[in-house]
Structure prediction request, 625 residues.
Amino acid sequence: MSDEAGIVTVPLAPSALRTVLRGWPARVGLLITIVFLLLALLAPLVAPYDPFDQDFSATLAVPSWAHPFGTDGYGRDMLSRVCFGTRSALAAVLVAVGLALAAGTTMGLVAGFFGGHTDDALMRLVDVMLAFPYLLLALIIVAALGPGLTNSMIAIGIVYTPRYARLMRSQVLAVRTTDYVSAAICVGANELRIMLRHVLPNSFSPILVMATLQSGSVVVETAGLSFLGLGAQPPSPDWGALLADGQSFFLSAWWIATFPGLAIFVVVLGFNLLGDALRDYYDPRRRKLVG
Amino acid sequence: MRGLASNRIAQLVIVLVGVSMVVFFTMRVLPGDVAQLLLGERATAEDLARIRQQLGLDQPIWIQYLQFAANALRGDLGMSIRTHHPAMDEVLTAFPVTLQLTLAALALSVIVGIPLGAIASLRPGGPFDNAVMVLTLMGASVPVFWLGLMALLLFGGILNWLPIGGIMPVGLDVPRVTGMTVVDSLISGRADLVAASLRYLVLPAVTLGSITVAIITRMTRSEMLGAAMLDHVRTARAKGLREFLVVWRHVLRNAMLPVVTVVGLQAGLLLSGAVLTETIFALPGLGRLMVDSILNRDYPVVEAGAMFIALIFVLVNLLVDLSYGMLDPRIRRE
Prediction:
């Protein structure tokens, strides 16, 4: 689901968005994403209880009207914890994707624009980073930084950086040869201005497509690190940490692991549906196959 | 072809040097003093100085790196802080468990994914195609660690069909030859061991394979649809060739090339997924070893595991590149 989008130089216009949203999968994806964002913002208003409130008279309570998702071993309401879990998932998307986007785009822009030794050096660094399986590199970085939610988000961000760098570089190589960039060079515009005003905006749309597609993976991977005990730590209501907690009770209290996992699944599905639609729109070959 | 191979092998050496640098320097910024970790809180200043000297930790960092690289080339990556066994031995003991799991998941992905994608592509937009697309989209979105827990709950907890974790039943030991329980059971020639090892492998393999099945199905479908639009396929149909032969000889063959590459490229995804799958199913594999070593700050094992997995991953990618050259005459001739 996370293969790189094709090379395009068309900015994402409102009319394009309308075309993208014509299909039902994209609309469902957008709806899920909006609900996820709203839940993250309005969690204190939506959640029926405080996610940290312990009620020892209602430990491991089965789902009921009072606790629709049941309670955990400390009597904490699972629905409230899942609602608040949207916040760390959203933070993971913002921090990890933001970091990868900023670092990767800069690396790709510089490598593609200047070429030569700068390009060689940066691309070899990218090759080395891509020589590690996703989660392994994240594990090494978390080992160095120490377990914790912020560190796990940074680790995932670093892991994704080379993919953005590769894609941005290929975009820049295509845009650099266009007439308007040549014209800007002829009129004597300086390199920084050409990069920021002409090359970057015209190379950015596939990067946004990739960011959407990878947002789902980021949610899964940061939750995965928390599940392993390397990300968010108890009693944080992070979905991965909730799942890890549920693992200890999965035969006696199925609801503790079921609902946080379902939340991750739905959110990732939303990002994937939206990302797929964006990718299909930008890749004429796929558009033909799908349509 | 030989030029392509030597070029890729030269790149591989550069990448491996880079990998060793990343592993070494990342682990050296670990918070805490390694000597203190080794000797514990009660160590005296003299003991700490002695161990630092023994391990070369008092040397400049680049000398430490050269020493590390020279030792790594000999397969020596230090001793585990927890078990006091060579770190590489720990890694090599755990690796067959991960290898068996990833190979089983990959085999499942190919056996299920390619026919599913091929059949779906025959009637794009039809009910079967739509069902496959929805299922694969769900398969690609489901977190492995949640799917594993749900599978355990259903098949291990509620239905009681399959074991709820571990690698073999307690009291039933397989004579170790390769370290892969299914292979070793087959070598032993005992049907009860083979059946037990397979029962313990089913759920982890299906869990780990879920995402790759989805990816390979979608890839096969999309490549088959692309290949079906090529001129030679239209010509074959115009000649009156039977539909089965058109699909088998002209569409599937042309679609398989990128699919083979994608199958090989799933190695990274599977190795990553194995970390989580091994945790859920309590399998003593390399992923679980890495996580335990990180949590216990057993950094020689983390370094050894990271170097080993990266080496395997890079070698698999090299093989994929070379196989692509062998399968596609256009690349071979370049």
